[in-house]
Specification:
Blueprint (H helix, E strand, L loop, with lengths): L1 H5 L19 H4 L3 H8 L14 H7 L8 H7 L4 H8 L9 H18 L1 H9 L12 H9 L2 H4 E2 L2 E2 L1 H7 L5 H4 L11 H5 L5 H7 L1 H7 L4 H12 L7 H20 L5
Antiparallel strand pairs: 1-2
Helix pairs in contact: 7-8, 15-16, 16-17
Length: 259
């Protein structure tokens, strides 16, 4: 969809297709068109960038930099993880179909390091449960990887070949249902009335200052915004909150106790 838009970046009607995305997110659907355009526009002109498919996500998550402490900024010294990622891509990467490039980035990065690990194996194994996931069977993965892109996504219809092959066994309402991931509350999970005491302790200004990664005043404003029943907490706010809290937990567990 973004590539279609990128061919005519000044088009007035091509961005309207963004309304077809995420129909299950009522808050997103109620946003004005300019909001959707602003979210999905980052890197639109850079259609030859190998990271083109993921630039909106990377742009969103990089907002956490506004919370960095001066010492952390000095330590990073201009380091750009996206440049490092580009340098590690296979030599033939740019010759692949755009969908294959996007899937390589997703299955090589987000899937094993985040979704299958922190949201899958670690949670399950911590409770003595070993997951068995049919679609992650290596033979299914190998078959899926060998399929031509048009059989995976046809227009805006995802999982096209799967729907065609198995759709006759399911009600039409399920077969044609848009993909919808599970969604868990973000900052809300940690800031409700009965939230664990460690959250308050690790996000306290003195704990933030002792760890040294973030600016205490900036973190305090973020926490206040996330706590406020009147504040509109964005996806970027939630990502920053979880990134800060996770960093504080790791520091307290493996570097120096903060509480």
């Amino acid at each position: 969809m973004r590539r279609f838009w990128a061919r005519r970046p000044d088009s007035k009607w091509r961005p309207s297709l963004l309304r077809r995305l995420y129909p299950y997110l009522g808050a997103l659907q109620s946003q004005p068109p300019k909001y959707l355009e602003a979210f999905f526009r980052p890197g639109l002109e850079a259609h030859d960038d190998p990271l083109f498919s993921h630039l909106p996500r990377f742009t969103l998550t990089r907002r956490i930099r506004q919370f960095y402490s001066k010492d952390l900024v000095a330590t990073i010294n201009g380091y750009d993880p996206l440049e490092e990622l580009r340098a590690t891509l296979p030599a033939e990467f740019n010759s692949w179909h755009p969908l294959s490039r996007a899937q390589f980035l997703e299955t090589g990065g987000l899937l094993p390091g985040y979704i299958l690990s922190s949201q899958g194996d670690r949670v399950a194994m911590a409770h003595a449960v070993e997951g068995r996931f049919p679609f992650l069977d290596h033979r299914v993965v190998e078959l899926g990887a060998a399929l031509p892109p048009a059989m995976k996504v046809k227009g805006l219809r995802e999982k096209h070949v799967l729907r065609e092959a198995l759709g006759r066994h399911l009600p039409a309402a399920i077969v044609e249902r848009p993909k919808q991931p599970y969604r868990a509350p973000d900052s809300e999970s940690f800031l409700h009335a009965g939230a664990p005491e460690y959250v308050r302790a690790l996000l306290a200004p003195e704990a933030i200052a002792r760890a040294g990664y973030f600016e205490p005043a900036a973190v305090r404003r973020l926490v206040q915004k996330c706590r406020s029943p009147l504040g509109r907490v964005s996806a970027g706010d939630n990502m920053a909150f979880l990134g800060i809290l996770s960093t504080q937990i790791l520091h307290s567990c493996y570097v120096r106790p903060l509480i």
